[in-house]
UniProtKB/TrEMBL annotation:
Keyword Membrane belongs to the record: no
Domain of life from the UniProt record: Bacteria
InterPro entries in UniProt: Amidohydro-rel, Metal-dep_hydrolase_composite, Metal_Hydrolase, Metallo-dep_hydrolases
A GO CC term assigned to this protein in UniProt: cytosol
Record's protein name: Guanine deaminase
PANTHER family: GUANINE DEAMINASE (PTHR11271:SF6)
Pfam families: Amidohydro_1
Cofactor(s) this protein cannot do without: Zn(2+)
Domain Amidohydrolase-related: 59-379
């Protein structure tokens, strides 16, 4: 294969405060990898005259990374809301129980991957149902770069789910042996669905395997109260996971809202990541994640849709509300951070910082084309315009999505 140049405006995230913009940019791709990136006219002098150039009308940004969603809730995203625990029992757990049916699961997986690529998401972390087969289906029909785990849930849930859970450590080890561990996440659903002893056994597995670990932490007040009753001798919710050895730099914790100072200190000491899900938190009536605390304790975090808690899989929608909810609370947050937390930070969170997440040379050419070239002096304004609209608009806003340099949506 020959190198191909994509010519368009390019916006590349650098960090939480910085991005780099090329009005007339170029991205050189060979065998799915970014070979060069920069200003088109400068690049012209460095490439062969017969190099293929494709003009794209819009702005190239890195493909989005969604570090916390439930693919088995995609069909019902935005359909239900309400207090977390009631919402789980009444709507979500019955929906997940349907994934025992492999034909149903296969059709839902195809729909899910098609929809997220259309919306510009190329990478992420996904909770499956407890079923081994549905999880295998999500792994084998994967489009993009996903890390997926069957939720482990042994107690305090309907038997339509707990009967299928691989919460037995040996059954889980056997399942993990036949799974590509680079795409697998150990996924205790949340503390109320497991005993202290099972959590500890999972911590043991986490220590044996290089896999990522994902769970929910301190999402709602009622959940916090329930954890207190179930684990009366734990100093706080975070300690329930910490005692089990589940908090590591490979651990991604969804939500982290109802947190005390010592819990932030614990996360900081363990190097664990937070998956911040502003749209889900709003939809389920939970409080705002205290971004000021996350910043003060220097906790690494990335953005996520948490579908079906979040009403949409669009990371543009998540970015819109990320800026919205914190600004409404008087906390300053810039569009540069919204883009960074939805791309590069997500890849870093997944241990794939050297593979993807931005458009630097050597990384995989996973990118999205957003509409309309902005005037050079108003990139922030253009980007915020790109984030405006309702979830359905935003799901359709990208003009195209490319995986390893090949157009897929
Ligand atoms: N806590 C435990 N399970 C879930 C879930 O499926 N969604 C959300 N938002 N929180 C959870
Ligand atoms: Zn979740």
């Amino acid at each position: 294969m020959m190198e191909k140049i994509f010519r368009a405006s390019i916006l590349n995230p650098i960090d939480a405060n910085t991005w780099r913009f090329f009005q007339d940019g170029a991205l050189g791709v060979d065998q799915g990898i970014i070979m060069r990136m920069g200003d088109f006219t400068t690049m012209l002098s460095q490439i062969d005259a017969d190099t293929e150039v494709e003009d794209l009308d819009g702005v190239i940004v890195p493909g989005f990374v969604d570090v916390h969603l439930h693919w088995v809730q995609h069909r019902v995203r935005g359909r239900f809301s309400g207090e977390l625990l009631t919402w789980l029992r009444e709507y979500i757990w019955p929906e997940e129980a349907r994934y025992v049916d492999t034909d149903f699961a296969r059709a839902a997986a195809a729909q899910f991957y098609g929809d997220v690529l259309r919306a510009g998401t190329v990478m992420g972390m996904s909770y499956s149902s407890p079923h081994a087969e549905a999880t295998q289906i999500a792994l084998t029909s994967m489009r993009g770069d996903w890390v997926i785990g069957n939720v482990l849930m042994a107690i305090n849930a309907p038997r339509t789910l707990t009967d299928y859970s691989l919460h037995d450590p040996d059954a889980l080890r056997a399942f993990m042996r036949q799974t590509d561990i680079t795409h697998y996440a150990l996924t205790p659903r949340f503390a109320p669905n497991l005993t202290a002893a099972s959590l500890k056994a999972l911590g043991q597995i986490a220590a044996e395997s290089p896999c990522l670990i994902q769970t929910h932490l301190a999402e709602s007040v009622a959940e916090l109260q329930w954890v207190k009753e179930l684990f009366p001798d734990a100093a706080h919710y975070t300690e329930v996971y910490d005692r089990a050895g589940l908090l590591t730099p490979r651990t991604i914790l969804g939500h982290c809202i109802e947190m005390r100072d010592e819990e932030w200190r614990c996360l900081r000491a363990r190097g664990s990541w937070v998956a911040h899900c502003p749209t889900s938190n709003e939809a389920l009536g939970n409080r705002r994640m205290p971004l000021e605390q996350v910043r003060a304790y220097n906790i690494p975090f990335a953005l996520a849709s948490d579908i079906g808690g979040g009403p949409s899989h669009s990371m543009l929608h998540v970015m819109q509300r990320f800026l919205g909810v914190h600004r409404e609370a008087g906390v300053s947050v810039v569009p540069q951070e919204a883009l960074y937390r939805s791309t590069k930070a997500g890849a870093e969170c997944m241990g794939r910082g050297s593979i993807g997440g931005d458009l630097t040379v050597g990384k995989r050419a996973d990118f999205v084309l957003l509409p309309q070239k902005p005037a050079v002096d108003s990139i922030e304004h253009w980007f915020e315009e790109c984030l405006s609209g309702n979830p359905t608009d935003l799901e359709q806003r990208p003009l195209g999505t490319w995986l390893s340099g090949a157009r897929v949506a």
